[in-house]
Amino acid sequence: MATKFEDRHVLNKPADTVIKMYSDQAFFERKYKALEGWDIEVLSCQKTAKQFSITCKYSMKSSNPDIPAFAQKIMGTTVNITQTDVWDIAKKTGRLEVEIKGTPVKITADMALKDEGKGAVNVLKWNISCSIPLIGGKIEALIVKDINSKSANDVAASNKILADY
């Protein structure tokens, strides 16, 4: 079983400008630095005329008081994450894959960037699965809640950095 949901990142510049930012290593370094408590390391970054790919590793303290003891035992107090973002620059579509080290959790999101209003929107279609019997669904729900709680800060940091593009 997997949990699916959609998130919309509303950005205040056109999609052509946003894709320039999304395909720039400096954006990722600045964004994660702006998001409190995230220590980032860029493992790889490749850009061609058609495609951009970046893999980052970061760790953060698990500060969510809603995480039950059983999940904390699985996840630990510090969460180590490897995230890969891949963008088709011309189509403005992408995919991100997240690995939480030491857990049986799989997180992906298909992304589509398009103009909307005076700016752009990045529509993320998330797919989260946890293969632990009986409690996997509860862990998926916690991850969804965590992603949703961080979304506004992610968008705010992105829009602030977007002013430089």
Tell me what the structure shows:
Pfam families: DUF2505. InterPro entries: DUF2505. This is DUF2505 domain-containing protein. The chain is of the alpha+beta class and 165 residues long. It has a single domain, classed as START domain (Alpha-D-Glucose-1,6-Bisphosphate, Chain A, domain 4, 2-Layer Sandwich). It is built from four helices and seven strands. It has helices spanning 15-22, 25-34, 69-75, 136-162; strands spanning 3-11, 39-47, 51-61, 78-88, 93-100, 105-116, 119-130. Strands 1-7-6-5-4-3-2 form a seven-stranded antiparallel β-sheet. Strand 2 (39-47) and strand 3 form a beta hairpin. The protein is globular. The termini are far apart.
Summarize the structure.
Helices cover 32% and strands 44% of the residues. It has four helices and seven strands.
Strands of the largest sheet, in order across it? 1-7-6-5-4-3-2
Structural class: alpha+beta
CATH superfamily: START domain
Which architecture per CATH? 2-Layer Sandwich
Count of alpha/pi helices:
4
Number of separate strands: 7
Q: Major sheet: size, sense and barrel closure? A: 7 strands, antiparallel
Q: Do you know the CATH topology? A: Alpha-D-Glucose-1,6-Bisphosphate, Chain A, domain 4
So what's the oligomer here? Answer: single chain
Percent strand equals: 35-45%
Rg from C-alpha positions? Answer: 16 Å
CATH class: Alpha Beta
Unreliable stretches: none
Report the order of strands and helices: EHHEEHEEEEH
Percentage of residues in helical conformation: 25-40%
Cα distance spanning the termini: 40 Å
Mean pLDDT: 90
Q: Shape, please?
A: globular
Q: How many domains in all?
A: 1
